[in-house]
Structure formats: structure tokens, C-alpha cells
Write a structure and sequence with these properties.
Blueprint (H helix, E strand, L loop, with lengths): L3 E6 L1 H4 L6 H12 L6 E5 L3 H14 L2 E5 L10 H8 L4 E3 L1 H13 L13 E3 L3 E3 L8 E6 L2 E6 L3 H19 L6 E8 L3 H7 L9 E8 L2 E8 L2 H15 L3 E4 L4 H12 L3 E5 L5 H7 L8 E6 L3 H8 L3 H7 L4 H15 L3 E7 L14 E8 L2 E8 L4 H21 L4
Parallel strand pairs: 1-2, 1-3, 3-8, 13-14, 13-15
Antiparallel strand pairs: 4-5, 6-7, 7-8, 9-11, 9-12, 10-11, 15-16, 16-17
């Protein structure tokens, strides 16, 4: 396997003003194509720092990838530093500079002198096309080693990575054949999932990883043996199949979306502590108008009474966060929108508002399907956002399971 080193260049990353999503995208894309990052570093956009880092990395690694510092402004110093490290002079790519000027003129803009730096390429380097932005990438090979420099803008970096870098590596640098499967689970904690699968262990050819998110845990299996991978998937399905909602890139939101369309069922939603998060997730899917009729963010008791017909005596006796209130919210949402199905959530997201009897994290989640009420009492941990996310995930998971049961 080639040793790969990634350099992220940018003061804003080190200051915490910009999240380094490029490193994650590079790592994920390389991994899917049979390569792995050996090490990475993040450095300032400073000529000496860039030069020193490039020199050391070029001497120690087979493949070097950098992001950032290729723009036309004064603080973009990567191009000059690269030329200096490899002992190359910068030459103007006249054809590229002509195209840049044409683009500016077509938009009734005067060509900027600063943009001319984008057309300068170190000798013996290949310019990598960038259809998303203006700054091209750079590629250089010598003595069996390869160097790629890409812009720091995520969309531009990703285009060049997938359009130029990966095809070049596949053609010139043998990767490792591997098979990857992600099993997606909901409403089971990582520790419980791990315990349930404790007798399913890594082998020399296969590795299992647990990747938790609020309300969700992905189980990723990486194997060089296709048959062993199938066997591991089957064993995991046998153990925790009831918590599995999908595989690989499938999301719970999209699975519910597809099932609602397939079953020709309409849906309405009543939300309290989740504040519209569930409705937002559904409407993220193109075509959600086929089933999603609308919803109510009944954050206050006033809204619960006025828009969902929750009774005052129910609120007085049981409180807003209760099985009884969620049951009436479900019926109110279903009736108001004349929907086939409804979801409802009410809880305490915190950090304040909890009591001994009803602590922060207490959430009631309900689904109404074919006049059958299914309500779950949950006690979530985490901060306010995490509790909201877990509540919304639980609602979608319950809807998913109830839709599955429609045909049983």
C-alpha cells in the first residue's frame, strides 16, 4: 500500500473559523477506492512552513496531497512555495490565461491582474481542470512518487479529487481491493449494540467498527474477503435485525419517504420539543408533497389546545410531557389535516425545565397508524440539540417500523 500524506493549508482552519471537511472527504474518497491516508497535518499559509512541510513529506511518503492556498490573493502562497521546493520556475499557461480573460469579459468584467497568478504553472507540472471554480489543481510525478495540490474550497477540491486525482491513482498506483458494507441502526445505544454483537469479532481479513451519532449507530465492516463479509452481515442481521433500518448511504428520512409513497399514505406531524425538525427532514426530500400534508409546531400549551384540540384537563392532570398529551396531539394532527398517519413529539430538551419526576431528556414520541396508537417513553442524554435529534430519529424509526407492519 502506498504511504499517503495530506497537508491542509489555511490559517482559518487553525483559528477554528473553518471546519476542515476536506480532510474527511479525501479520506473517505481514498478509502472507497482502495487507498488510505497514512498521516496528515494542518499548517499556516506561510511560505516557510509550507516549504518545510512539503520537503519533509516528499522525502517520507509515496503520495502527497495538499489543499488550500491556490487562489489569486496575496495570502495564497502555495503555488510559489511548491515551485521553490521542487526547483521549478513558474511559467504562464497562455491558453488558460486567455480563457480566464474571456470569462471575465463575457460577464462584462475587466480581467484582474491578480488572476494572472492562477495561470502560472511550475515547470513539468500538470494543470488539473476545475469546472467548479477558477483555481486549477496541480500534479507532479518523479521517481515513482506523486504530488497533488488542490484548492481549499470544498466543492472545488472534491471535483478535482474525483475527476483527476482518483483516476490517476487507479491507473498508476495499485490500491488494495476491499469490500465495505455499512449497516445502519437506530434506537439502540452503541454500548448495547456492542454487547449484543460481542461474539462477532474482527478477523485478519475483516474489521468491524461502530460509528455512533445521536439516535443512530452505523456498523461498518471492511473486508478483503467477499464471502466472509456476507457471513458477518448475516450474523449481525440475525442478532440485531429489528434495529436495522438501512445500508450504506440510506438515511432513515429517505426510507420513510419512499415507504410513504409506496404505501400511498398521507402524513401530518405535531411537534413540541423538536421545533419542526421532523417536518424539515421530510420536506428535504423532493416529492414529499405526495404524502406530507402539513404539521403544527405546538411548542406552547396554548398552541396544543388551539391547533390540536388537546384538552386543558389533560394538560392540568398529566402535563404537556406525557403519554396522554401526545395521544391527543396525534389525534389532533390526524384530524386537522385529514391524514392517514400522524407523528407527535413532546419532551424536555433542556438544559433547564426538568424536575425530579420529569427530568431533562424525558420525551414521549408517538405514531398513529390505522387508528392504532404507538407511544414510547424515552429518556435521552446529551445537550439540547442532541435530545432534539434523538427525539426526531425515534419518531421516524417508529414510523418506519409501523409502515413495515402494515403488510404483516
Amino acid at each position: 500500500m502506498p504511504k499517503i500524506f495530506v497537508i491542509s493549508i489555511g490559517n482559518e482552519i487553525l483559528l477554528g473559523k473553518t471546519v476542515n471537511t476536506n480532510l474527511a472527504d479525501i479520506g473517505d474518497t481514498l478509502f472507497k477506492n482502495g487507498y488510505e491516508i497514512s498521516a496528515s497535518t494542518t499548517i499556516q499559509d506561510n511560505p516557510e512552513t509550507i516549504k518545510n512541510t512539503l520537503k519533509r513529506a516528499w522525502s517520507e511518503y509515496d503520495i502527497l496531497i495538499s489543499t488550500g492556498g491556490l487562489g489569486p490573493t496575496k495570502d495564497d502562497r502555495t503555488r510559489d512555495s511548491i515551485a521553490s521546493v521542487f526547483g521549478k520556475s513558474l511559467k504562464l499557461n497562455k491558453e488558460f490565461w486567455h480563457k480566464l480573460k474571456e470569462q471575465r469579459q463575457q460577464n462584462f468584467q475587466k480581467p484582474l491582474a491578480a488572476q494572472k497568478s492562477l495561470a502560472k504553472v511550475p515547470e513539468d507540472f500538470v494543470q488539473l481542470k476545475n469546472k467548479v471554480g477558477t483555481a486549477p489543481g496541480l500534479q507532479y510525478s518523479a521517481n515513482g512518487k506523486h504530488f497533488f495540490a488542490m484548492p481549499g474550497v470544498p466543492a472545488e477540491m472534491k471535483f478535482i479529487l474525483e475527476d483527476s486525482v482518483i483516476p490517476f491513482l487507479k491507473k498508476n498506483v495499485p490500491g488494495k481491493q476491499r469490500f465495505v458494507k455499512t449497516i445502519r441502526t437506530a434506537c439502540m445505544r452503541e454500548i448495547d449494540l456492542h454487547e449484543e454483537l460481542s461474539n462477532i469479532e474482527d478477523t485478519e481479513e475483516s474489521k468491524i467498527a461502530f460509528l455512533p451519532k445521536p439516535g443512530l449507530v452505523d456498523i461498518r465492516i471492511v473486508s478483503s474477503n467477499k464471502e466472509e463479509l456476507k457471513n458477518l452481515i448475516n450474523r449481525i442481521q440475525e442478532k440485531v435485525g429489528q434495529y436495522i433500518y438501512g445500508y450504506d448511504d440510506e438515511t432513515l428520512q429517505h426510507i420513510c419517504h419512499k415507504k410513504l409513497i409506496e404505501n400511498k399514505k398521507t402524513l401530518s406531524v405535531a411537534e413540541s420539543c423538536t421545533g419542526g425538525l421532523i417536518q424539515n427532514w421530510f420536506t428535504d426530500n423532493p416529492g414529499s408533497s405526495n404524502y406530507f400534508l402539513g404539521g403544527v409546531v405546538s411548542y406552547s400549551n396554548f398552541a396544543k389546545k388551539k391547533f390540536l384540540d388537546v384538552k386543558q384537563k389533560t394538560l392540568d392532570k398529566h402535563g404537556a410531557v406525557s403519554h396522554e398529551t401526545v395521544k391527543e396531539m396525534l389525534q389532533g394532527a390526524k384530524d386537522k389535516f385529514d391524514a392517514d398517519l400522524s407523528l407527535a413529539v413532546s419532551g424536555i430538551a433542556g438544559p433547564a425545565g426538568g424536575t425530579k419526576e420529569k427530568p431533562v431528556g424525558l420525551v414521549y414520541v408517538g405514531v398513529l397508524v390505522n387508528d392504532k396508537v404507538d407511544i414510547k417513553k424515552c429518556n435521552f442524554n446529551g445537550n439540547r440539540l442532541q435530545i432534539k435529534q434523538q427525539s426526531a430519529i425515534t419518531a421516524l424509526y417508529m414510523l418506519h417500523k409501523n409502515l413495515e407492519n402494515l403488510h404483516k
